[in-house]
Amino acid sequence: MKVYNTLSRQKEEFVPLEAGKVKMYVCGPTVYNLIHIGNARPMMVFDTVRRYMEYKGYEVNYVSNFTDVDDKIIKKAVEEGVSAQEISQRYIEECKKDMAAMNVRPATVHPLATQEISGMLEMISTLVDKGFAYAVEDGTVYFRTRKFKEYGKLSHKNLDDLQAGHRDIKVTGEDKEDSLDFVLWKPKKEGEPYWESPWCNGRPGWHIECSVMAKKYLGEEIDIHAGGEDLIFPHHENEIAQSEACNGKIFAKYWIHNGFLNIDNKKMSKSEGNFFTVREIAEKYNLQVLRFFMLSAHYRSPLNFSAELMEAAKNGLERILNAAQNLQHLQKNTAVDMMTQEEAEIFAGSEAFVEKFEKSMDDDFNTADAISAVFELVKYCNTNVTEESSRELLEKLYQRLESLCDVLGLILAKEEEILDEEIEKLIAERQAARKEKNFARADEIRDILSEKGIILEDTREGVKWKRA
Ligand code: AMP
Ligand code: ZN
After folding, report:
1. Residues framing ligand 1 (Cβ under 6 A)
2. pTM of this structure
């Protein structure tokens, strides 16, 4: 399996630190708002990487944090007159709902920055002891960037060029030794959440959070560190400096970064205001369509969001789902159990598409080509099965299609349709609940039915229902 490594700017053979195991860290969102579909791109992409690794037989320890202390969270809390914790908790819950709807599996661990402060204090102390960090008068602790000789190795930046860019921007009140030095710990401001430390009451810088959480949950050396390409500099460059200066070991072997999701060929971002939340898209589309759209492009390419491409994704996905449904329908109705010799050959012929799929995924997770292998398998199924096909063949082809779609995080099985008599039974139960003034249960039943596309109408003649 080949993986493009931002460190070497090349595709490299993937060799895990420990045979059969993958330790992977993905930088998660800052939780002060509903996530937008740009944030959803790394979630879907790296969930697919994880799924493919598992498909190949690796045991994957997948860690992804929530940044739950940050200027933007505090600002939102002040605006709403609530605590920062209330804001972060609310949006973590909302983010988890979106992830589930996008079929992004929960990480092995989702650490929260605010729960890991002691590890941060420990790492900062080690850096101070080793001469890689220093505190100034007001208690701010800075990383001594020039002391880390390999600074710039990930972003391929030269320190002197960086310095030139900084020359005239001396921020008043900052007394750091060098303009390249970055914050590890900073003093609290009035009304902000804070923790005690040897330097001042304050809170951590953003970069130290990930170095510490990766170390705690995965160890000092990890296989893969991932995130959006905007994180390469300074976030990931700084993480490398902190972790490698502290631990004296190479932090991550492979650095993987996704390209941006754009809109009108401009980066989709909260600060620009040109974004769609995942929730907004969910009003119009099943989120499987969004996932299919994201995976239709290579993860390192920029991807432009448009209504046309979403429609194309919807149609493409439907072709796959229809083929799967057809296989299931035939399977239910066929009179033949076992595969014939000829059918065994048909099944063996479908192996070629699995090989093509794996070859594409082995080439730096080329999901676009992997999807075309799925389409070829779909076409092959459609042309090779009939009402006379055996249950065994139909089942095997379905499973083959399902296992490839599962790597992409696409769910084939359509929800079972609810039968008329079940609907009538639930309506009767709702009426009884209402009579007993158990309105919670009555509303719950209405929601269950509405999720299944059943609309209730209370009329003078009683409750009427229809399918949406
Ligand atoms: P943030 O909440 O801004 O820290 O972002 C969380 C993750 O989403 C990071 O990995 C970002 O790189 C990624 N991200 C943010 N905006 C986009 C975008 N428009 N396209 C792709 N990835 C993005
Ligand atoms: Zn991070």
Report:
1. 27, 29-30, 38-39, 41-42, 227-228, 230-231, 258, 260-261, 267-269
2. 0.89
